[in-house]
Amino acid sequence: MKKSFKFAIVMVAVALIFGTNTSSAEVVGDQHWITPINSSPTFHSITYQDELPALATYPKLTAEQYTADPNIWSRFLCASTTDSHCQNVSQFSYQSIFPVCQLAADVDCVEGVTAISIAGQSQEGKFISYTVPDHVNKFPPDLSLGIPKTETPSLWDLPSAPHQYGTQYAVVVAQTGSVRMGANGNSTQSQLYAYLLPVSKIDVGYLRNESPLKVGYDSLWETPKDSSGRTNTQGYGTSTDACTMSLTDPTKCLTSRAFPDGFKYSVKIRLSKEPVAWLHGRMVDPSISISSLNGAVVMTVTASPTKVPVLSLGVDSSKLTSDQEGIWVSCFTDGTVCTGGGTHDGRPIDFNRTFTADYSKTLNLWATMNGFGATAIKGVQLLTPLVGDKSQALPSAWSFHTLPTNQLAKADSCFANGPGLKGIVTTNSTTYSEGPPSFKDGSLQYTVASPHFNPDGSVFKGTYNLVMRSDVARCLYKFTSAPIKASISVVSSDGSADVATTVSNETGGWLYLSANNFTFSTPTVQVKLSQDAPAPVATPTPVATSTPEPTASAAPTTAPIAPAPKPTVAAKKSTITCIKGKTSKVVTAIKPTCPAGYKKK
């Protein structure tokens, strides 16, 4: 079958944007910014909005069959890796939502969530239920291929941390990955992501239709039926009715809410293996704890939530410069930087043709950009002038992701090599360079980009946190085991130094660095690490046991020669006579004195 996979993305976007009506107006705002729709032939819109995608909250197992022609391939939805529709395929792709840990031997599961008050008091959450316990896309694990067990997001009650609409929170921890089948062995890759969200149940006011996976994909997708005859479906949730996660009841769903002030949260995960290399995410002052338990890896991430500005704009393409138009071109020529779609004369775009800036100016386009990467940062730099350098909303978030494998190839070997987690970078900036900072000219450098102003016109203040294993820092700088010092600076895009509050410390084998209250639009955070020079050790003077005889071949000494001693002159003696009555004695000595009872004559 011939196709462009980007076409599939387009049709999903069309279904999500035009297939539903907006409801539950109370949740539309900072936490759920919705890009206004304009169907004018040359209208372009773009949104930077870092929230949990609805399609990331359901399980999925697919099989891909490739051919020698990259434009001809097939994909099938699988009930399991042994499904008859999914045999002799090139690759399996999956999305497993971690269940709650029930048994001591369980792995790849959520062990718990805890709220910590500003006074340091903590309360563990109580597991309530899964969002859709009988989701039709659920599939059994295949541990031989590294595909873990799946459920749907878990709901927890945290009475000590009430938000505006209740005490329920949703935990979404998932592993996505692929297994490329090969005659000489399989090639696997995977990523871990985690979201914590305050949630409440809303009634969408109508019966929501569940979209079969084949909708919008023509003959590309085959939808096999499971043993009970049900057709596997893509999942639940739409982008325009404020549903973050669906529930079993098709008239209701969960929507995310803003975090309450004054709390930190810990999410504890039990894993079959430790995440590799690097995490990036949305939180403030994160700390990481990793331990082993019965062969499993227990990872706890503790942090405060943060607020991330939404940048959204719509404009007629005639008002865009070629550089600004290039952001949409980058989006649709590189499917890794955004999702989106568009129409030409009311019909979906043919992405098989060359997508140039001139061509895109004749199209109606919409896009949702990733919050990280060079293209995202460039987009903020180029597009913020069109909205007065001002964000449109300020939703709260608590999330982290592992770094894609292809990003590690760009990092210093100290970040990429060796087993285990190396660190985490978090920021509240709209966009950022994900993963480990670059190591350049002796400093760690990290670029962020956001609108300068909040929606209310106040100046947006940035936060940046770098948590790095101490041995990674020592690898970079060739340091010893002595304590590490750090200096942090924030340099504005014009080269001037920004005023920021910075903190650094080293504890428990981790180096914690943070910069706060800096301004935008595109500053660079720079970290320089150092150590005190080791104190000089005094060299003891050797004690000679004998004086060696000089030899003709001995090298001349460079030590100063002592002057020869002066000759000793012998002291002269004198004689005195001492008397006692009629008795007398003669005394001769250097300093003669009379004996007791005698006196000198």
User: What top-tier CATH class of the domain at 403-532 fits best?
Assistant: Mainly Beta
**Radius of gyration, rounded?**
37 Å
- How many β-strand stretches? 37
The biggest beta sheet is recorded as: 16 strands, mixed
- The rough form would be described as elongated
Helical content band: under 10%
**Quick check: average pLDDT?**
79
Low-confidence runs of at least 5 consecutive residues: 1-27, 209-240, 545-570
Helical/strand content category: mainly beta
What distance separates the N and C termini?
143 Å
How much strand? 35-45%
CATH topology of the domain at 403-532: Immunoglobulin-like
CATH architecture designation of the domain at 403-532 = Sandwich
Number of helices: 7
List the helices and strands and how they pair.
Blueprint: H1 5-18, E1 43-48, E2 60-66, E3 73-77, E4 91-97, E5 109-117, E6 122-124, E7 126-130, E8 154-157, E9 168-180, E10 187-203, E11 221-222, E12 245-246, E13 252-256, E14 263-271, E15 277-282, E16 284-293, E17 296-304, E18 306-307, E19 311-316, H2 322-333, E20 338-344, E21 347-348, H3 357-360, E22 364-369, H4 374-383, E23 396-397, E24 399-402, H5 405-408, H6 413-416, E25 421-427, E26 431-432, E27 438-440, E28 443-449, E29 462-469, H7 470-477, E30 485-491, E31 497-498, E32 501-507, E33 510-518, E34 524-530, E35 574-580, E36 583-589, E37 599-600
Parallel strand pairs: 1-22, 3-11, 15-25
Antiparallel strand pairs: 1-19, 2-3, 2-4, 4-9, 5-6, 5-14, 7-8, 8-9, 9-10, 10-13, 10-24, 12-13, 14-17, 15-24, 16-17, 18-23, 20-21, 20-22, 25-29, 26-28, 27-28, 28-34, 29-33, 30-31, 30-34, 32-33, 35-36, 35-37
Helix pairs in contact: 2-4
